[in-house]
Amino acid sequence: MSLLGALGFGLYYWLGWYDTVLTFPFASPLFQGLVCGLIFGDVKLGLQCGAMIQMVYIAAVAVGANLPSDSALAGIVAIPIALTAGLTPEQALTIAVPFGILGTAMDNARRLINGMWNRKAHRDVEDLNIRALYFDAYIGPALVQLPIRVIPVTAILYFGVGNADKVLTWIPTWLSDGMAVVGGMLPAIGMLACTRMIGRKNLLPYFVIGYFAMEMSGMGILTFAVLAAMVAILHVQFVYNRSVGPSDTR
Amino acid sequence: MQEQRVSLTKRDLVTTCLRILFGHRVSQSMEFFYGTGVCAGMVPVLRRLYGDRPEEYKAALHRHLAPYISEMTWGNCILGAACAMEEQRANGMESITPESINAVKTGLMGPFAGLGDTLNYFIMAPIITAIFISIAMNGSPLGAFASFIVMGITQTIGIVTFNMGYKLGRESLLDILRGGWVDRVMTGAGVLGMLMMGALSANYVSLSSNLTFTISGREFAVQGFFDQIVPGFLPLVLLICGYVYLNRPGANNGKLMLALTAVGLIGSVIGLFG
Fold first, then answer.
1. Which of A29, A215, B88, B119 is deepest in the core (most CB within 10 A)?
2. Which of A55, A182, A235 sits opposite B260 (nearest CB)?
3. Domain containing A16: what range?
4. Ordered mean pLDDT values, 10 residues apiece, chain B (274 residues)
5. Is the domain of A193 the same as that of A224?
6. Do A135 and A246 sit in the same domain of this protein?
7. How many domains does chain A have?
8. Which ipTM value was assigned to this complex?
9. B156 touches B17 (CB < 8 A)
10. Does A126 lie in the same domain as A24?
11. pTM score > 0.90 for this model?
12. Are both A188 and A123 inside the same structural domain?
């Protein structure tokens, strides 16, 4: 991959992490899969890689101030490598995961540095300097992030993409088979994280019901969602069988 | 009735609402959370209300620079209410002190964080994402837009609640939080979430065994047994073990990831999994 191309991906990653809610969807592995698929000419594989990676991070939400994993970094590194080297989506997944963990370090660094903009904002308000306040709130933090986000991704892709072929020939069969198994297991982490966050351990039996219902029926997920919503409505009716008041109408 | 000294225009409110919704995270930090972003977002409103009184303006800006963290879409009603309170204060209502405005923000930000995070990010987003993942796995580019749909929904919620908060003000928000419906919604969402997590796990977690035994000369494949009697047995065992592990003190997702990688690799090599 050319340096310019790698730089392009680095900037894409930075834009995704500008952290206005508007740009974050661009950084989702699913969308990265589409973009990379278009760039490298294999949309189907791109989408599949993106989907596999997105699956692991389905519960990786920045709750409060904690980022459990950086799905954007995982995707922006793994998907171009996978597409240029013709890897399977499962192999892309196993490349993605370590980078996802690495990314949290980057984000923690960024948040530490942002403290300085917050403190400057206090001084700017003291001077009633609104333009500086806007800079502190919207532009400054993103500029400081530029090197943190762009340089690592550019370096990894510039050196990683061309050499993925060589690395692949070194990988013995047992390792790639093993990676395939691990790839199937990893989405469990995302599932469990979400389940735990929902809390309400008394509702866990529904998890098992949902699991086997899907396992046995293989019905479409959308259909299942509708049925699940119906069950939820019924459950609430059975449990709360006294009406609260005029504000509660069904 | 006293005539209003200053009134917030629709444009002030819309600008503030959108600035907060889209700009609150850029400057987030561990000490101040979204404080700077919220303050910068409130500028249109505060400038309209206090622009001609520099000391009041400064004081208002300072109080909104305070550390603030919540879920910013369902919780945008808090800031809408804050705007309403500021407007009343600017028009001479002495009873609305800076302390009371801060109290509303800090008091409500916690409950709405719990409500909003659970509804949006642990239930709604995974379901929509999963649906789009299926679409993407089949090769359709439409699947890539999952996050955009989620964002569209959450930001719309943010706009609606902001207006609601502005119109209803602080008292009604407290009533809503205390009322019975929040509990029902959370329970219903919990049921839905659990069912969906189970179904998604069935679809996306996979583990099967290559193990075979020879009993009285006949080969007996363990996976075949599982498929007949309890389909999806191994992934479910994996999920249960993972869940039990995560409930122990000191557990975290990173360690679990390493453990799964190790188990998967070793299991594959010794021929247990495959």
1. A29
2. A182
3. 3-198
4. 73 93 89 89 92 90 90 91 90 83 85 85 86 86 92 94 87 74 83 88 86 81 86 93 89 79 87 82
5. no
6. no
7. 2
8. 0.81
9. no
10. yes
11. no
12. yes
